[in-house]
Amino acid sequence: MLSGRVLVGYGPTSVVHEADDRLYRCVSRRRTGRAICGDHVRFSLPQPNEGVIEEILPRRNTLSRTNYRGQVRPLAANIDCMMVVLAPEPAPDPELVDRYLVLAHDLSVKPVLLLNKVDLVADGGAAETRLLGEWQQLGVETRQLSAKTGRGLDSLARTMAGGTAILLGQSGVGKSSLINALIPDLPARTQALSRTSGQGRHTTTETTLYPLESGGALMDSPGIRILRLAHLDPPALAAGFSEIGALAEHCHYRDCRHEDEPDCAVLAAADQGGISARRLASYQALLRERKAVQP
Ligand SMILES: Nc1nc2c(ncn2[C@@H]2O[C@H](COP(=O)(O)OP(=O)(O)OP(=O)(O)O)[C@@H](O)[C@H]2O)c(=O)[nH]1
Ligand SMILES: [Mg+2]
Ligand SMILES: [Zn+2]
Description:
Elements: E1 2-10, E2 13-18, E3 23-27, E4 40-47, E5 50-56, E6 62-66, E7 72-77, E8 81-86, H1 94-107, E9 110-115, H2 126-136, E10 141-144, H3 153-160, E11 164-168, H4 175-182, H5 186-197, E12 208-211, E13 217-220, H6 234-239, H7 242-248, H8 265-272, H9 277-293
Parallel strand pairs: 3-5, 8-9, 8-11, 9-10, 11-13
Antiparallel strand pairs: 1-2, 1-4, 2-3, 4-5, 6-7, 12-13
């Protein structure tokens, strides 16, 4: 029996990186379920070029989202750090970032916000810095970098050593460009992936893991516009907005929804600028969405 880590899954087929650095195409069995990017697996090799996954080792965590039909879709497993990438172009979607932070909190994974393409901001990025400031105040680590000029990449590589980090964010923010800048032999690795999977040219339509020499790993993921979190229950959603939770204790009603109730400490704070009204709107949108799916 061999063991390794799943680099990418295409339905029942996956590419596994074995301990001695070889790649194998493997199929999952109904009994074990489908292996996903980041899984640690044990597999047998009944034929030289096709393995069979015999066991998926218990997942430390699973990053999932709800699809448009309300089904939970696992994207990747065994993650230590969620790197949410934003850029001056395409324009940031702050609500999407709030949602990633909810997910990170739920998985007990450290979030880091990466502002990429800082080479494009002429005025030192006043608008972007203001935007990042909102999350910084909540204790979220933020970094400014450029895949194009290399700014900030050395220190990013040092933070990643050891763990598994996933790059997430809208399409076009530069996730794949960052991977390309951080992994010098990326073209060769992509070719090896395509050769092994037999899926033709490898693209970033599937979340893909790249092992790092430091022992850690970096995952690239396809860009998304909407992050649905209908699989998280209201307490899990609330936990992602700690500044709201702290104030909710002072609301008149214990089950206050912070919408139009009298003596609501959260609404009062949002009015006076004590908390971000934008974040409160993000939270309420999540609750509404959840109600629409599971009334
Ligand atoms: N100026 C500048 N352009 C960048 C930088 N990083 C990426 N780009 C450009 O932004 C565009 C999108 O980059 P990608 O790396 O494909 O973006 P992505 O996040 O992987 O997009 P998806 O795979 O669609 O989710 C490309 O044209 C890159 O050349 C940067 O730091 N500065
Ligand atoms: Mg990409
Ligand atoms: Zn309230």
